[in-house]
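Dear Dr. H.,

I hope your travels went smoothly. While you were away I took the liberty of generating a structure for the chain from your last submission, since the lab meeting agenda had it listed for discussion. I wanted you to have the full record in hand beforehand rather than looking at slides cold. The sequence, exactly as received, is reproduced here:
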Amino acid sequence: MDTMQQAGLPRTLQQHYSTVTLDPIVHSVPEHIQRGMKEDPNQYVYALVEHLRSIDEGGNDHLLQLKALHDWVCDNIAYNVIGYETKEYGATDWVGVCKNGNSVCQGYATLFQHLCDVAGFDCKTVSGYSRGASFDLHAAHSTELAKTNHAWNAVKVNGSWHLLDCTWNAGHVNGSEYIKSYNTSYLFLEPQAMLYTHLPEDPKWQLLPHPIDPEEWVQLPYLRGRFFLCGCVCPQDVLRVNACDEGQFTMTIPTDPHSQMIFDIKELKDHPHNKYGLPFVLTETLPNGRALQICCRVPAMPFATLHMYVRNAHYMDTDEYHTAGEVGLSPTGSIPYEDCLQLAFPKQYSTFAKPGILLFSPMTGLLERGCAVRFAINVPDVIAVAVVTKEPKKWHHLTKLASSEQMKYERGTVTVCVADVWAAEVPIDDDVVPGSKITVYAKYAEGTSYDGILQYIVC
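The corresponding predicted structure, in token form, is as follows:
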């Protein structure tokens, strides 16, 4: 897709208006106005808008004013789950929505548009297709384009159009229950990023110089607003469903240094044979700290789903991980499903996410007794690296290779030479208890304890 030039916000400005908390002005609306918006919206809407716009004392920050209007809608309107399920949507005109206090997406969008009209902003309601609560990554693509299923808004400020979705920012549906959970993942989201979950029926509302067609849209991976708000970038070669050559799939995700991501494969996470809980995804942070290298290994099975979660306290005011998206995998490997543990990686501790920690060997999470295993791992800025067997407890210190002995790291399309490799042959003796753990530790400074990096299981 083309980079957007005329619409949307620079990511840093977008993050400025994207928070996880409602603006306090929403809760300072005078009680008689708040009550009047339920009893006689026509009479009180001008007073409401005037109050909300007072957030901008200088009167020049139109985006801040729009956020206040958006926040009031998100806080005061609940999603009509029963109406959605029964197709008896109830009122979707702005007056009816205010009186009922609930609606479906059309009602959210209509109400926000009317508040904008009163405030003097040029706002449109956009109808189209979305990847909402019922979206199935592996379902037939034709079902997604059968008919439009969502509505959101476009608003013009200083000559540029911006996109937002009050419905999705107000909360989410869990089964038949509506969960109020305010967020700003879809507030002024860049048009190119919005397209991974929202396709306007009228291509002009993609706000792109060269709109994509529906057939191209259904092939896009499922990436939510938080993925982009946290500074992550979709790899160009990643599709909705991706072939796993001999059961392996790799991708590189450019990301913000403040962001952390975790991944799992849903169909293998709770595999009945995976009694040790080993992962099938290896996540490494490249030395520059601005990209993640993701490697997945999957046995022969009909399909698999790579789930992505992200957190960025710098932008989201929270340490919690949130769903960032899904990527489909189409395994073509020869390893049977029941033998999936042959493909498992070692468990990765949080320290492993530090930039430049790259694993050369062993790549499998299961280690056999009675043999020597070569450990080789690039760990920058440490004074010691050790491999420790637990039962019985034995320490094996790795040796740092000479600076002239650079090793070439190659994973997927990434190749980089590194010079902080620690390595040694480590014997896994016959007396090591099956099922016990072998942990790789690193020490960052004298007088400090060792930090766990990786954990293996003895078989």
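Two observations you may find useful: Residues 62-76 form the longest helix (15 residues). Residues 378 and 420 are 5 Å apart (CA to CA).

With kind regards,
E. W.
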